[in-house]
Each structure stands twice: as structure tokens, then as C-alpha cells.
């Protein structure tokens, strides 16, 4: 492979990371239709030259340009998951809300909501506020910055399918649990 071809490939990878901050490795290889080893090689070169940063969060390796800070990188990694995005969009549209209302509004099981909330809270996107009776209200911690991060994230088809499959399984489990509860 010529130096020019290698530089062209590296530039394509860098452009894709610039256009899609927080893109994860598998999505990068899919969208560019490149072999994983080829992408790894060029990413290492881009990291050595400080053109790309790598961060592993929640089972995926994400890539960013260096102009994203720690909070932004964590936010973008979480927002690449459709369900987490849906939770934030719900809270933006409806304001501070009880977890059950959010789960119903997003049409997910409460356990799925809690899994995503753990990451949203950990990345300082959502706060769980408790009242005098210890009831929880979910509140977006940085609404303006979160809205800006949401605009940067375009979910992939693969990401949407995984999230929708999880929702389907949750729905089936909830139906089965309800059926078993009625039979007892």
C-alpha cells in the first residue's frame, strides 16, 4: 500500500471521528468499510500524533478529537445509546420526573431505566433528587450542554437495533412476569 493511500485512509478515519465524536470502534470499521486491523493501525498513528483520543466506557471503545473534555467524552459515550438518549429527551420535554413516569414515557422496563440511569448519573447528565419522603425525581444536571451533546450524536442502525432488541426482551419478560403473577 502506498504512503498516499495510507494517509488517505488515516484522513478518512480522522474525518469520521471529527464528524461523529464518541464513535465506537465497530461503528468506525462498519461506516468506513475497512478491516478492523487496518482501522487499529491508523488509530494508533492518530493517537500518537494526538489527533484522536481513545476512551473505553461501558464495554465500548470510543474515539474523539482532543477538543472534547472529560465530561463531554463521557456524555457522548452514553448518548450513543438510544435508550439513554430517549431518557434525556423525555426529561428535556417533560422536566423533572419520577422514574416510573420516565420508564412509562420511554416504554421501557424500570430495570432497563435503572441500568441507563446509573450511567447517566455517573457521567453527571442526570441527578436523582430525593424529597422529604425519600421519593426520587430525575433532573437533567446541565440542560444546555446536554442539548448540545445530543445534537452531535447520530445513532447508527446497529446501535438502534441492539437497543430495540433489549426493549423487546424487556417487554416479553414483563408480560411473562405479569402472566405468572396472575396465576399465583
TrEMBL record:
A Pfam family per the record: HTH_HVO_0163_N
Superkingdom in the source lineage: Archaea
Species: Halorientalis regularis
InterPro entries: ArsR-like_HTH, HTH_HVO_0163_N, WH-like_DNA-bd_sf, WH_DNA-bd_sf
Matching Gene3D superfamilies: Winged helix-like DNA-binding domain superfamily/Winged helix DNA-binding domain
GO molecular function, one term: DNA binding
Keyword terms of this UniProt record: DNA-binding
Name of this chain's protein: Winged helix-turn-helix DNA-binding
PANTHER family in alphabetical order: HTH ARSR-TYPE DOMAIN-CONTAINING PROTEIN, TRANSCRIPTIONAL REGULATOR, TRMB
Residue ranges occupied by any HVO-0163 N-terminal HTH domain in the UniProt entry: 8-76
Amino acid at each position: 500500500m502506498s504512503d498516499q493511500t495510507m494517509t488517505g485512509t488515516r484522513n478518512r478515519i480522522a474525518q469520521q471521528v471529527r464528524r461523529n465524536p464518541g464513535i465506537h470502534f465497530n461503528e468506525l470499521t462498519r461506516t468506513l468499510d475497512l478491516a478492523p486491523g487496518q482501522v487499529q493501525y491508523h488509530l494508533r498513528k492518530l493517537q500518537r500524533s494526538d489527533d484522536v483520543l481513545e476512551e473505553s466506557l461501558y464495554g465500548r471503545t470510543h474515539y474523539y478529537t482532543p477538543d472534547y473534555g472529560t465530561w463531554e467524552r463521557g456524555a457522548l459515550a452514553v448518548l450513543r445509546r438510544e435508550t439513554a438518549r430517549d431518557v434525556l429527551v423525555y426529561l428535556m420535554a417533560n422536566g423533572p420526573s419520577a422514574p416510573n413516569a420516565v420508564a412509562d414515557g420511554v416504554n421501557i422496563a424500570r430495570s432497563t431505566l435503572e441500568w441507563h440511569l446509573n450511567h447517566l448519573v455517573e457521567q453527571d447528565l442526570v441527578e436523582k433528587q430525593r424529597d422529604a419522603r425519600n421519593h426520587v425525581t430525575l433532573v437533567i444536571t446541565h440542560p444546555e450542554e446536554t442539548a448540545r451533546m445530543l445534537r452531535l450524536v447520530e445513532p447508527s442502525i446497529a446501535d438502534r437495533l441492539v437497543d430495540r432488541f433489549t426493549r423487546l426482551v424487556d417487554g416479553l419478560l414483563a408480560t411473562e412476569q405479569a402472566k405468572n403473577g396472575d396465576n399465583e
